[in-house]
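User: Tyr recombinase domain-containing protein, Rhodovulum viride:
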Amino acid sequence: MARYEAARRGEVWTPPEDRGPIPRSVSWLTLEFEKAMQERVAAGLMHPGTLKQRRAFYDRVRADHGEKAMQIPRAKIVEIRDSMIATPGAADNMVKALRACFAWAIERGILTENPAAGIGKLNRGRGAVPWSVDDLQQFRDRHSAGTMAHLSLTIFMFTACRLDDARRLGRCHERRIDGITYLDWMPGKRGSARVVIPILPPLAEAIKAQTLVGPTYLLNGLGRPFASSAAFGNWFRDRVAEAGLEGRSPHGIRKAAGELLALEGASQYHIMAIHGHTQAKTSETYTSGVNRQRLAAEAMELLRGMKW
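Assistant: Predicted structure for Tyr recombinase domain-containing protein:
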């Protein structure tokens, strides 16, 4: 009937799905923001993983609220967040994604206020669980030297790099400085600083133990570089499960490396150089507790000679 009525009016009928989103609706706003993010990715100003993550959140919002006015009420955003309480980290990232979209719209005069601003987090934990020395040993007991799993753990431990950086590292990042081989790379996370660290013997041995050599250190079952951080993350998660470990992630190894460095006396600035941080407060996570413990021990030494 819609086709018939359009024909009587002398119009060409267009299916609803081809007409595009309703102007100034939630769908319209989020799709416009996605276009802007694609341009930022192309210009090297945004990591592709950020776009992918936010697009997944916007798809979910569009499915439930796509035709509504783009100025989502604050109460509705809180409701969306609370509906995801089973995955608090994802719920907080949903709010963060909406906040970024509204901030973009405000800068361009599309909106005048950000309804997602000031909405609290559900996930107030410490994030990824740092691997203990026993965790690291249990993983190595299951995945011996020479395996790709052993190499992946060694890379994480002796570079403290992020998951996406680990899958991209290879011999092209090796650099000889004063007779010492270094790894030199620019982390993929926006705002990070370049990292140049020596390849310590455990990592050098793990690399040499590999019989399969490719453009990257870490290769999938077909002997090729992992296509994405998600593919590598899924593969590593399976290796963790095979080792009988639960709730352990690559980021937890990065945190373990930071805490072990602090325990060995590394300063915030040492850890900043290894982790690629540009803000001291980021590395303070690893040193604050250790520094307090050291200061407390030194202070108690002042009482050692007291007669009681």
